[in-house]
Structure formats: structure tokens, C-alpha cells
Amino acid sequence: MYKILKKHDKLLSSKEGLAEIFPRLVKATRINEVERFDALDEDLKKMSLASSKTEDIDASPEVARLIAGLGRSGVVGLTVQPVSHRSELVLSFFLGSSLALFLSIGVLLWLPEKSPRTFSEAYFLTPIPVFRVVFSFLLIMWCMGAVAKICGQADVNHMFILNVDPRCRVSPEWFFARAATLTTIWILVFGMYVVDYKWKIVPTVWSTEGFNKRASLHFVFYPLVLLLLAGLGAVMPSTICRNRYKLAVLRSVKRTAMAPVFPVDFADNMVGDIMTSIAKPLEDVPAAMCYLLSHHPQEEAVVRRFVTNGDNCSDATHSFVVPMLAGLPFFFRANQCVRRYRDTKESRHLWNLGKYLCSLLVVIVSRLDNTILLITVSTVATVYAFLWDVFLDWGLGLSELLRSAHAAEANGHVHEHGQPQKIQRHFPRKVYWLCSLFDLVARSTWVFTLMPTSLVTGNIVSRVIFVSLMSSVEILRRSMWAVLRIEYEQLSNASGFRALLWVPSKLNAASAPPERSVSVSLERRASNTSGDARQPLLS
């Protein structure tokens, strides 16, 4: 009704629709009585839990389902731990084991090598871009599972907000299982490469054609096999993550890249933001290709190029391809802002456009020989992005950060008696403080991922460590950002993508406290009859 009457007022240059007709219809139809939506939500839950195994059990639907051995419990008739608890134990064990193995690799790297005279740090590090591409991919898999897990535990219906097919059965455990498998393979292959190169386990092949006597053709097979296994895992058919879901992600990437042509929904908006966070991993793609396609064993000229540029790519690649890959995600996201402004006429989309143009400017200025200008532009881009994250993407202000948990007031959310309506936040206050602090620190280092690594340090070992850490920190920061962004979108419809504020609870989620139920606030639109009644801007 709101959209129809809004169009009515726009075509007739009138305010009668929203000022008079809309409040009258809301009152007559009682559509603003949110209790009906809560009752409907409860009825849907009960229907979904209905089963011949639970008919005679005198208990709540959730308890009856657990007693019958359905849902999140184990085998019928047996006293077993919940499936989610068992999976968390397995996940904790694997994470602890992986940490120990990573520490073991650190020890291997620290130990003195065999035949120091022929050992070359530069030659040893040349395949690192390939290993880093796969590591970024597995880290993204871990983070996707973590985001879904946290949203599920906090009663944030990310599936509904992102408009995911309700039939999709991809769970956090699926992401964790794939990420765990890939992590194991990565640790195994990288560890084998370290041991082989440092202590010359496998006999060299064609070493006379390479950098020195330690050079060998077979070293390229370690990163190549790892890359092939990662690609196979990504495209391998699955009865849970079906190909249509993978194609849906690719279609979203296509719409993001062609934003001026396609309208932008919240899922595409999220894809665009995620792409800006993988700018550095994208830069590793041509570096990995240059290594795999170069001469093997590595020749002295190629190794010298790695020392200078940080990879085996030519100067032309560094002058054109790498800056283009670093800037394209921000260009795509800027185009989304232009399309959103065209569709909504909200000026805040232009301010959002300015944020991504500042990031693009960092990419451009970093290629110039002007340190003062680079520091100035980077500082502006960092502060701009941080303030946008906290105040607009997460909906946090001094009132939300200084008051107790679940007591943040929403500007413009009003009850019918004129009292401010409170947004029921899903996390304690200290979580928002910690996330804001981490976002500021990570944003301060994020701009370095848009610059050539040679501007930061000339030492090749420090350069490899720096790039790896910065890329990983940005992926972790974006994952944290995604949780709070989806939460705020559910609570306030901040982007205005949904016709109603109400979001159904997940049927398979743990029972949330009644005060966490998200309610509809159509009075907000009924009381705001001017053009300012439009919802706030998305990130």
C-alpha cells in the first residue's frame, strides 16, 4: 500500500496518498497490529514440527521434536549429545590441531637449511602467490561458515535477508567441513614443499637450467597440485550445495559487475562489498599465473624480478593488470551506488559513492611518486570508510554504544502513542565496542593492500609476511562486518529493500527470547508523509 500510494503522490504531485489515505487504511485494516505476525510465526513453527512421532508427547513443539529424536538431536530413543554440540567438539579439535600444525610449519621455516650456499630465499618464496591464493580461498570458506553460524545462534535470519532459496540446505557445518579438508591439504602440501626445498628430499630435475644447483622442475608441482585440488573442491558436485546455488553466486557477481544495467538488491550489495575486501587476493591471481607459466626450474632473471616486484610478472603486468584488479571491485561498487541513487533518488547513495571513489583514488595515487599525497588520501579513505561502517552499515551511534545491551533507540521508529521504539540488538554492548575498535585498526592497515608492496618494505621475507597478514586481516574484518550489517538490515530494513520490517524467525533455529522478536513498524511510514519517509541508505 505504501509503495502504491507513494507512486500515486509522485504522479499526481500530491501528498494526499501518504498523508491521509495511508493512515486511514492502516487504521481500518489493523495491519499495524504486529501480534498477528507473531502468532502466524508460531503457527508456522508448530506446523513444521508436526510429525506422527510427536503427536502424543505433551510438551512444547521444540521439546517434543527433541524427545522424538528429530531436528537437532541424535538417534531416536538414545541419550546422545545434540548434533550441533558434537560438530562443535569436532570443529574445536580440528582448529586446535591445525594451529599446532601451523606452528610446526613455523618451526620448519625457522630451522637451518641444508647446504646454505645453494639455498635462496627468493627462489624458495617464488611460489608463495599460488599458496596465498588457495589460503585466501580456504579462509573465506571458514569465514562464510562462521558468519552463518553466528547469525544462526543470534537469531538473525540471514537466509531470508539475503533472499537465499529456502530449499538450500547449505549449513555452517558444510562450509566448515570443506574448509577443514582444504586446510588439511594446504598444510600437508606446503609442509612438504618446505621440507623438500630446505633439506633436498627429492632429487633435482634439470637443475643445470635453473637458478643454481638447488633449482628443480619438480618444485612447481607442489603449488600446482594444491591449486588443482582447491579448484576441484570448488566445482565438485554436492547433494547439499547444488550447482544451481553456485551458479546463483556467479550470477550475483555478474550483476555486481554490470550494476548500472541491473538493479541492486541486498545480496548483490553484499557481494560488491565482499569483492572490495578481496582486492589483494585478486592481485595474487596474475602473480600465481606468472609463476606457473614461467620457466621451470626458475631462471636467475625471473628470481631477480621476484626480488624487485614480489612476483614473477612483467613490468607491464604491474603497470596495468594489477592496478586494474585492485580498482575494479571499487569501481563495481561505485556503479551500484549510482544505480541505487537513480532508483531511489536518495542523496546518501551519493555519499556512499564518494567513499568508494576515495578508495579508488588510493589505488591511483599509490602508483604516483608522492608520499604526502598518498598519506593524505589514505587517511581520508580510512576515516570515511570507518565512520560509514559504524554509523550507517551497523546503525551504531553514541546512544547504542553507551547504553546497555538491547536498549538502542532507532531514529524515526515511533509507537502509535508517540513513544520511541527501541531496536532490540542481538549482541551485548561490549561486542559492538570491540567490533568498532577492530574495524578501525583493520581499516588502518587495509589501505596498504591497495598499494604496491614495494612501497611498504624492500625485504622479500617481510613483504611476503606483510601481504599475507594484511589480506587475512581484511577478510576477517569483512566477515565481522557482514554479521553486524545483516543484523542491522534485519532490525531496521536500513536499505529499504523489503516492503515490511518483519522478518520470520528461522524454523530450525534455537528458540530466541520473546523480546528478540522482530516486529513490524508501519507507523513509521504512516507518521512520515514527506519524502523523508524513505528508509536509510544501505552500506
Describe the structure.
The chain has helices at 2-12, 16-29, 35-49, 61-67, 83-110, 121-125, 128-153, 158-161, 172-199, 221-235, 243-257, 266-277, 279-293, 300-309, 315-344, 348-365, 371-393, 398-402, 429-446, 460-492, 523-527, and strands at 408-414, 420-423. It is mainly alpha-helical. Helix 7 packs parallel to helix 10 (221-235) and helix 12 (266-277) packs antiparallel against helix 15 (315-344). The longest helix has 33 residues, at 460-492. The protein is globular and about 90 Å long.
Biggest sheet, open or closed, and with what strands and sense?
2 strands, antiparallel
The ordered H/E elements are HHHHHHHHHHHHHHHHHHEEHHH
What is the typical, i.e. mean, pLDDT? 79
Q: Low-confidence parts lasting 5 or more residues at pLDDT below 50? A: 66-83, 404-420, 508-539
Shape: globular
**Helical stretch tally:** 21
| Strand segment count | 2
Determine the N-to-C terminus distance: 26 Å
Subcellular location: Membrane
InterPro entries: EXS_C
Keywords: Membrane, Transmembrane, Transmembrane helix
Membrane topology: Multi-pass membrane protein
Give a concise summary.
With 539 residues, this protein is mostly helical. The chain has 21 helices and two strands. It has one domain.
Observed structural traits:
globular, mainly alpha, two-stranded antiparallel sheet, 539 residues
List the helices and strands and how they pair.
Layout lengths: L1 H11 L3 H14 L5 H15 L11 H7 L15 H28 L10 H5 L2 H26 L4 H4 L10 H28 L21 H15 L7 H15 L8 H12 L1 H15 L6 H10 L5 H30 L3 H18 L5 H23 L4 H5 L5 E7 L5 E4 L5 H18 L13 H33 L30 H5 L12
Helix pairs in contact: 1-2, 5-9, 7-9, 7-10, 7-13, 7-20, 9-10, 11-12, 12-15, 12-20, 13-15, 15-16, 16-17, 17-19, 19-20
